[in-house]
Structures are given as C-alpha cells and as structure tokens.
Design brief:
Elements lengths: L1 H21 L12 E6 L14 H15 L3 E4 L2 H6 L3 H10 L3 E6 L23 H18 L5 E7 L8 H8 L3 H17 L4 E6 L10 H4 L11 E5 L8 H19 L3 E7 L16 H15 L5 E4 L24 H10 L9 H24 L1
Parallel strand pairs: 1-2, 1-8, 2-3, 3-4, 4-5, 5-6, 6-7, 7-8
Helix pairs in contact: 1-12, 2-4, 5-7, 10-11
Length: about 375
C-alpha cells in the first residue's frame, strides 16, 4: 500500500513539473513564447454603422480560417468601430469560443468627433487639447471594462500618438519629448491599469524613429520611462527588402533593451506585413503574391526563436487605405498563396524535444526507475 502512495505522489509531482514548465516557471526549460497572431479589422473594408447581415458568420469564418492556418492569437484592431457599434463583446466572445488569445490595439483619435468624421484621426490634439484627452481616457476606460471580463485577452497594445504629414517634424522636435506628452500618455496607461491591473500593457512604436534617425539608442527622442507598462511593442515593415531581416533584428534588440531597462523585458512584434499594391507608402511592398509568400516564410523562420507574440497585419485586405492588399485571404474568404505560406510554417511539427511534456515524461521515467530500483533493492 505504501508503494501505491509513493507512486501517486511521484505522479502528482511530475504533473506539477510539467505544468510549471508549460507556464514558463522553470528557468532554462520554459517553452518559447513565439506566438503567431493575425489582426482583424472589419472597418478596413466597410463603413461604420453599415453592418452587413452576414457579418457575424463572416467573422466566424475568418476565425475558423485563422485557426486552420495555425494562428494562436487575434489582434483586435479598429476599436473605434467596435465601441461605436457596441460590438466589442461580440468579437471577444467569438475569439474566446475559438480558443485564441487576444491583444487589444488602442490608437489615439479625437473622440469629441464622431468616428464617421475623417478628422477624428487628426492626432494633433494630443497632448495639448485636454478635452480630447479626457474623452479618450473615458474611451479606453470603457474598453478596459469590457476586455477585463474575457480570459482570452492577454493585454493591450497602446500606440504612441504622433502627428503626421507636414506636422511630423514639428512633433518630433517640440512635442514628443514635452512634459505634456509624457504626462498624458501616462494617464492613458494608468486608466487601463486601474481598471484591468492583471493584463499586460505594451507601448507600441509605429516605426517613428526611422523617419528621423538611424541610431535609435543615440538619437531617439521618444520617452520610454513609464509606470505600469509590461514592455514595448514595435512595428517593422520593409523599406528595402535586401536588409529587412537585419532591420528586424535591430528593432527587436532595441525594444528588448528598452523593455529590460524600463519594464519587464517583454516585447510584442505588433505589426508586420507585405502588400503588392504599388500605391501609398513603400513600406512592405513586394512584386507579387509569390514574393509575398516567400517573404512571409522568411520572416516566420527568422522570428521563430523570438520570445514574443508576432502579429501579422492583417488577415484580410485594406481597401479603404489605398486598396492595400495586406491580406492573406480574398474578399470571398478564399486563401491566397500567402495564406498557404502561413499554413505550411505554423502547422509544421515542432521538434519533439521542444515539448514541455517531454521533460515531464523523462522526469517521471527517471523517478519511476529509481523507485523500482529501490523496491528491488528492498526485496533482497
């Protein structure tokens, strides 16, 4: 009888060990945290308040496709639309039902205007227009009140607000390092943290520095010392394909260093993607779908060792923005060649020795062998 009790204790210890390895609690044995995400935003292809009758089934089909392709997380984009239409619980319910993780993307906009007003995307109200700041604080507070109820939500990706177009230089020289900028951005972070303190918060940089400097460490004016953040997010789209992988390494290392210095050391690769459309910005542009698929494979291979979520922008195309074809599925939800690139790489079997279960089984067999040896020894 004593032997049965010992066996049960060994079994429980081994199960506990496997759980700790899976949760990343055992140094040097924690599983990789590379987590492939894909971003979904229906407001990229339809107007606000114009909800198609079949949209719910379309969203379900999108999530089913994302699951089949091997994605493990969904980036929830277009929060202004989800909130205006009171549909954020809908998408989070679906994400949870399909077993995904979720990251909530929060971008600054002028919420003293209706989301149907194109001027609501004018970011020059931040940080000096306190009426706009207060409206935005209420907005992120309401998002957090909803998101905190969902287990699937892993965190928030808060984009650094920045002025655009011909006002970008003024923003870089006089605004981004101002007291008002840092104080009001801290208020946004604090509002989320006060309502949902258990979730991660990442400040995400939309390739801001590369417009002005080549050495981020020496010349960046962007503030990084904030309270209540988990770490930093970064987007990185190719400007020159022949150096893109080197750029990825540079961004990853820089934001890892900043996170180690000012936060927990964690990062999120919050945006990357490729398009074939020649219009608009050059970032992420490739010749055709074949080259797009090839580069997706290269990036997935390159980032597999990274200790962070890797978020592709996006599952579907973005016709409202220069008809950009970032997507990996068509309008009728058929797969492009780039989707098959994800499916090939994300569904590839991982090495058997990378599975935390392997360590638990080995430990169990070792202890069981020792126990068996002990019983044999005691019988003599």
């Amino acid at each position: 009888m004593r032997g049965i009790y010992v066996f049960l204790i060994i079994t429980v210890l081994c199960l506990g060990f496997m759980y700790m390895v899976e949760a990343g609690k055992v140094p040097y044995l924690k599983p990789r945290r590379f987590t492939p995400y894909v971003i979904i935003n229906p407001y990229a292809y339809r107007n606000y308040y114009e909800i198609p009758e079949n949209e719910n089934s379309t969203l379900e089909r999108m999530l089913s496709i994302a699951k089949d392709l091997g994605f493990e997380g969904i980036g929830v984009y277009g929060l202004e639309g989800w909130m205006a239409e009171n549909r954020l619980p809908l998408i989070l319910d679906l994400i949870e039902d399909y077993g995904f993780e979720a990251l909530i993307y929060i971008n600054w906009l002028d919420l003293t205007r209706n989301v149907t007003d194109p001027n609501c995307w004018d970011q020059t109200g931040f940080p000096y227009n306190q009426t706009q700041v207060n409206a935005f604080l209420n907005y992120v507070g309401n998002i957090s009140l909803i998101a905190r109820e969902y287990v699937c939500v892993k965190g928030y990706v808060v984009q650094y607000p920045h002025w655009k177009g011909d006002k970008m230089n003024e923003w870089w020289l006089n605004v981004v390092n101002s007291t008002e900028y840092k104080e009001n951005l801290q208020k946004i972070i604090n509002r989320i943290h006060s309502i949902d303190p258990e979730r991660e918060i990442y400040l995400s940089n939309d390739m801001i520095e590369h417009h002005f400097v080549s050495d981020f460490h020496e010349s960046s004016r962007v503030p990084y010392d904030f309270a209540n953040i988990t770490g930093f997010g970064f987007s990185c789209y190719s400007t020159k394909l022949n150096r893109y992988l080197d750029d990825l390494d540079y961004y990853y290392k820089f934001f890892k260093d900043m996170s180690k210095k000012y936060a927990s050391g964690k990062v999120v690769f919050s945006e990357w993607g490729f398009k074939t459309n020649p219009y608009g910005n050059i970032e992420g542009r490739v010749r055709d779908e074949k080259e797009k698929a090839e580069w997706i494979k290269k990036v997935l291979e390159h980032t597999k060792p990274w200790d962070c979520p890797v978020c592709y922008f996006m599952l579907h195309d973005f016709p409202k923005e220069d008809n950009n074809d970032w997507g990996i599925i068509t309008d009728n939800l058929t797969l492009k060649p780039s989707a098959y690139a994800f499916k090939e790489k994300l569904n590839a079997n991982k090495e058997w020795y990378e599975d935390p279960l392997f360590f638990g089984i080995v430990l169990f067999l070792i202890i069981l062998g020792i126990f068996a040896f002990y019983l044999v020894y005691k019988s003599f």
